[in-house]
Amino acid sequence: MDSKRFKFIIAALTLLLVTQVLAPGRSAAAAKTIEQLPEPEWSYTLPEGYTFWNTLDSLQNKERMFIQLSKKAKLSASQTKYSDKVYASIDRNNGSTSWVYDYSDIANDKPFTASKFFSASNGYSYFYKMKGAIAYDFSVVDPKGKLKWTKNITDSYTPLVLDSGNIVIRSYVPHKPTSITFTEYNQGGKQIRKLNLTNKWTSGILEVLPNGYVTHELPEQGSISIYRSLSALKTPLVTYTAPKSMKNPYFEVKSFKGGSFIVYLSSKNGKLVIGYDMKGKKKWVRTLNVNDQIDITGNNYLVRNENTYRLYSKDNQLLGKQQIGEIGDKKWIYHMTPSGEITVEKQFQWQERPPIIDENLFEGDWAREDFYVLDPGNLQIKYHLSTLWLDQKAGHMYIYAGNGELYLTNEFFDNTLTKYILK
Fold it and tell me: Strands across the sheet with 115-119, in order?
C-alpha cells in the first residue's frame, strides 16, 4: 500500500465525530452523532461453502431479510464452480430459524443467463431462471423455505410481483411477437386471469407496474399510454406525447401511494417529470438537468445529481436539499432501499502514514468509511457513521432497514452478518 498512508492507533470500531458537509440551510443538529457502535444484537454465520453476495439488493419484510448468496461447489478433484442462484432468509429479530434456498443446478448453470429473485411483504419468495435457450422455471417458496409450486415456461417472459402479492407473467415469442400473454397467479399458484393481446399491443413496449397499472410505450411515435389495469385497456388514463425537441425519448412511469403517478421522460436533449393525479389529470411539469436521476420514496420523489439531492412531494413541493461530501466527488455510493430509506456511503478512504514508522509495532494501514442515513421525508441527516478499519478488515456491505436497524458484513470475509441498532 501507499507508503504515505497514516497509521491511526485506535480501535477499529471506534466512530469518529466528523465535520459534515451540509447543503445550505442545513444544521448539524439534524444528525444523530454516534461515537461508538453499540453491542451487536446478533451475528449469523452462513453454512460452510456459502458467502453473501449482492447484499445491496437485499429485501426485507416485517420479520425476515432475504439476501442473495454465492455457493462454491467442487465438481471434481481439480474443478470448482460458483453459483449465485442461492438465497438466505434470516430472522431479523434474533438471526435464528433461518433457511437457505438453493435453486441452482451447479453442473449445468451457465453464467449470465436470466435469473432473478423477488420477495413479497408477507414473506413469500419468487425465483426464476433460464433452463435453456427458450425454457424457464418460475418457483414460489413460502416463508418457511418450502417450495410451493413451479411453472415451466417456454416463451421469453418477465415476471412481476404485484403490491397485492399476486404474480403477473408476461410471455411472448421474441423478436417479432404476434401476441403477448399476461397470466396472473395468486401465491398458491392458482391462475387468476389469462389475457392474450394482439394487433396494436404487440408494437412498442407493454408493461405492468407493481400497483397494477399498465403502460404501453410507442418509441417510434414518442408516446406512452397509461391504463388503470389489465381489466381496463379500452381507454387510457393518460396518453402523453413527448415534445418534438426531445429526440428518441425514454419513458418511465413511477407510481405513488393512492394512485397518483409521474411520467419520467429522458433524452439527449433534456429531461422532464410530469405529475398526474389518480384520475389521470396533469397537475405539474418539472424540467430536470441532463444528469439528474429520480427515485420514488413513499409519496415523494427524489432528484439526485452525483452527491447532491433534492426531495419533492407528489405535488411538486420542495421538501429538502442535501449534499454529502464535496461537489464533484463521484466516489459516494447512493442507495434507496425497497422500503424507501436513503443511504449514502464512501469506503476505502486510506489514511496517510507518518513519515517515520516502527516496523516492529506497525500493524498495517487504516481506511475510513462514511455511511449516512437521510430522512426520506426531508433529507435531514439521521445518522452518520465514520469508522476506521485496519487493512483487510476495511470494506463492508451496509444494509439499512429503517429505524436505526443496520446490518454489516465484510466484503472480503463475507460469511457473517451482524445486526446493530443505532440510537
Answer: 115-119, 125-130, 136-141, 147-153
